[in-house]
Amino acid sequence: MYASVVDIQFQPGKMEEAIGIVNREDLGQLEGLQQFHIMDRGDDRALVVAIYDTEQQQTAAGPIAQQLLGRMASLMAAPPNREGCEVIVHEAF
Fold first, then answer.
1. Could you tell me the CATH number of the domain that includes residue 27?
2. How many Å apart are CA 37 and CA 67, to the nearest integer?
3. pLDDT per residue as tens digits for the range 47-81
4. Is residue 69 part of a domain?
């Protein structure tokens, strides 16, 4: 498995509005997407983690991810930082 990890800093009070922009139909366009998480880090920061079957699928999702992030651009305080990484431990309880 492979993950996209996106760190986003929103303008004050705009995170909830930005999260409302992302919907299941958009996420359904991402081939190989297994899981999608948005975590509130406090201070108008969010961490997005998207888990894919393969690194190739994570890479191929880049343009669609850019479109989704672009819809939120006016609500961000800074450009988001998107990185890919291998998932080395995955447990569900």
1. 3.30.70.100
2. 18
3. 999 999 999 999 999 998 899 899 999 999 999 99
4. yes
Task: Give the length of the chain.
Answer: 93
| Residue 21, helix vs strand vs coil | coil
Strand, coil or helix: 33: strand
Considering the domain boundaries, does residue 17 fall inside one?
yes
Using CB atoms within 10 A of its CB, is residue 65 exposed (0-12), middle (13-18) or buried (19+)?
buried
pLDDT range class, residue 35, cuts 50, 70, 90: very high
In one-letter notation, the amino acid at residue 10 is F
Q: Say what the pTM is.
A: 0.90
Q: Rounded to the nearest 5°, which phi and psi values hold at 7?
A: -100, 125
